[in-house]
Design goal:
Blueprint (H helix, E strand, L loop, with lengths): L2 H8 L4 H8 L3 H9 L6 H10 L6 H11 L19 H20 L11 E6 L5 H12 L3 E4 L13 H10 L4 E6 L4 H6 L5 E7 L5 H15 L6 E5 L6 H12 L3 E5 L15 E3 L2 H4 L5 E4 L15 H8 L3 H4 L7 E3 L12 H4 L7 H26 L1
Bound molecules: phosphoric acid mono(formamide)ester.
Length: about 375
């Protein structure tokens, strides 16, 4: 029974009287109670006031979660990459994130359901967006967060990564989020620990939560992914974001064009079904979304471009090159951006054409969705 229905019964009033006091129809009240709709902020405020705070937004979100048929499609204990995910699993993660955004916009609340759970952030590479959004996502779910300070940890005394992971595992966290420069590190840890492992970026291999948040941004703006033409441009060779996005977008039915100079194009990506171009004029033809990548110098061994100025001239996105795409094409970038290298500074700030900050906002919801899925899956196995 919905908590509000129980409150109605306990207080010996009827749905009709409650609806009348909230100044809404009985049909609207029924939709809230069945989980089909979540009350708008002004109605929610009236409900909180009328019930002396006994009923709050959390009561409505729980009903909504249980009703979402796709919520349980993702049944894995870990999120290590996009490689093995089915369309239904990706949709499950995106759908829950969409619900979370709706809930957060009504009134962000700290969830009580996950109180007592712990998430450890283990970042061996620099990060602003991913690390902070995992911390914020966990805190919004009421989960305790430990940010391991690698530079002051026993790794500096020679402890191996596996021994560090086993030590953390002995403290029984629920989720371990790892970023590492070596491809495959999250997979290695997932075989050794009892908790859920989330890949926050491994070398130039995968960055699954980035691809998921990008997909969410596209789906929210374009109302679909299937049938869209999406170009990924720049340093494809060193990009884990590109690899995860190619796999996800093709799985979801999009056409993917890759645009890069030959020195920055990776081999084998056409095997996934991506089309390869080395110029914007052909690569952006009829494109709906243009994803730009930065030059990932931290993973380069040697010189791949003549100069940043030369690179911008041929491969930096500006309004002239963007005009080759559809007139309503949107620009995305996973960040951090290097202005004047891979993207024109003025274009990067144009909120009518770029989704850069929206991507960051959606990253919190996607990470909340992934954490919730993994914790629920692990709980069901106990
Ligand atoms: N997009 C991304 O992974 O950004 P950070 O390196 O700041 O986490």
């Amino acid at each position: 029974m919905h908590a509000l229905d129980k409150w109605i019964k306990d207080n010996s009033i009827s749905r009709k009287i409650l609806a009348s006091n909230l100044n809404i129809s009985i049909a609207s009240l029924s939709r809230y109670l069945s989980g089909d709709r979540i009350p708008k902020q002004e109605i929610m405020e009236k409900i909180i006031s009328y019930t002396d705070g006994k009923i709050n937004p959390t009561n409505f979100y729980i009903v909504k979660n249980n009703k979402n048929n796709n919520f349980s499609e993702y049944r894995k204990d870990h999120l290590l990459g996009i490689e093995d995910l089915k369309e239904s699993e990706i949709s499950s993660l995106l759908n829950r994130a969409d619900d979370i955004i709706r809930e957060n916009r009504i009134q962000p609340t700290v969830n009580q359901k996950y109180r007592g759970k712990t998430l450890v952030n283990l970042f061996f590479e620099d990060s602003t967006r991913t690390k902070t959004s995992f911390e914020l996502a966990a805190k919004r779910l009421g989960i305790d967060v430990i940010n391991m300070q690698i530079e002051t940890s026993s790794i500096r005394k020679g402890e191996s990564l596996l021994d560090t992971a086993m030590t953390l595992n002995a403290m029984q966290p629920d989720i371990l989020v790892i970023r590492h420069s070596l491809s495959g590190t999250p997979h290695l840890l997932a075989n050794k620990v009892n908790c859920g492992v989330i890949n926050a970026g491994d070398g130039q291999h995968e960055h699954p939560t980035q691809a998921l948040l990008d997909a969410l941004a596209i789906r929210r703006r374009k109302k679909r992914i299937k049938g869209l033409k999406i170009a990924i441009c720049g340093d494809i060779a060193h990009s884990r974001v590109a690899r995860s996005n190619i796999k996800l977008l093709i799985t979801m039915g999009a056409t993917v064009n890759l645009i890069a100079p030959s020195t920055l194009m990776a081999e084998g990506l056409s095997d996934y079904g991506a089309n390869i171009f080395n110029n914007f004029k052909e690569g952006l033809n009829e494109v709906d979304i243009v994803m730009i990548l930065r030059l990932q110098k931290e993973r380069m061994q040697g010189s791949y471009i003549p100069s940043a100025k030369e690179y911008f001239k041929f491969y930096g996105l500006d309004r002239e090159k963007l005009s080759f795409a559809k007139s309503d094409a949107l620009v995305m970038h996973p960040g951090p951006i290097n202005r004047g290298v891979e993207i024109d500074s003025e274009l990067a700030d144009d909120i009518n054409r770029t989704l850069i900050l929206e991507q960051v906002e959606l990253g919190v919801a996607i990470r909340m969705s992934v954490i919730e899925h993994l914790i629920n899956n692990l709980e069901h196995k106990k």
